[in-house]
């Protein structure tokens, strides 16, 4: 069983930064961030393999967002820089507990556990 709790959301101006943190209990194989803007489908943002630390980032945020593991192994962070108004969304933390034989990190159906989300708002 994995329990997830996001924090760090807020309101910033364009070109500003936010750092989101997801605290996750229990064993996990991979963790990810997704986001959902009003009226839009949930969108993959970034993922990290918990074992080897390899990261996978959506082309929409590549070069601006970075996903990383916390030093104590219980958190995953999403550092969001150079924010744009189109980044405004509810950001969700997700975890995959079971081993992924054929990983598809960008697919929301791959993740077994989800946090409740945290709102990030970027104003012009």
Task: Describe this protein's structure.
- 0% of the residues lie in helices and 49% in strands.
- The protein is mainly β and 124 residues long.
- Strands 2, 4, 5, 6, 9, 10 and 11 form a 7-stranded mixed sheet that branches.
Write the topology of this structure.
Elements: E1 3-7, E2 10-13, E3 18-25, E4 30-36, E5 43-49, E6 55-57, E7 65-69, E8 75-80, E9 89-96, E10 113-114, E11 118-123
Parallel strand pairs: 2-11
Antiparallel strand pairs: 1-3, 3-8, 4-5, 4-9, 5-6, 7-8, 9-10, 9-11
Give a brief description.
By secondary structure, this protein is mostly beta strands. The protein contains no helices and eleven strands.
- The shape is globular
**Overall pLDDT confidence:** 95
Given as residue ranges, the uncertain stretches (5+ residues, pLDDT < 50) are none
Number of H/I helices: 0
Strand content: over 45%
Radius of gyration: 13 Å
Query: What structural class is derived from the secondary structure elements?
Result: mainly beta
Q: Got a strand count? A: 11
Residues in helix, %: under 10%
Distinctive features:
seven-stranded mixed sheet; 124 residues; mainly beta
């Amino acid at each position: 069983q994995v329990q997830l709790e996001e924090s760090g959301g807020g309101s910033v101006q364009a070109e500003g930064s936010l750092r989101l943190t997801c605290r996750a209990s229990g064993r996990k194989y991979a963790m990810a961030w997704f986001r959902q803007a009003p009226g839009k489908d949930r969108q993959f943002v970034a993922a990290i393999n918990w074992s080897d630390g390899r990261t996978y980032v959506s082309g929409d945020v590549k070069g601006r967002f970075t996903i990383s593991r916390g030093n104590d192994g219980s958190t995953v962070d999403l550092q969001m820089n150079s924010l744009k108004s189109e980044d405004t969304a509810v950001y969700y933390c997700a975890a995959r507990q079971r081993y992924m034989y054929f990983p598809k990190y960008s697919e929301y159906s791959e993740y077994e556990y989800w946090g409740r989300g945290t709102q990030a708002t970027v104003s012009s």
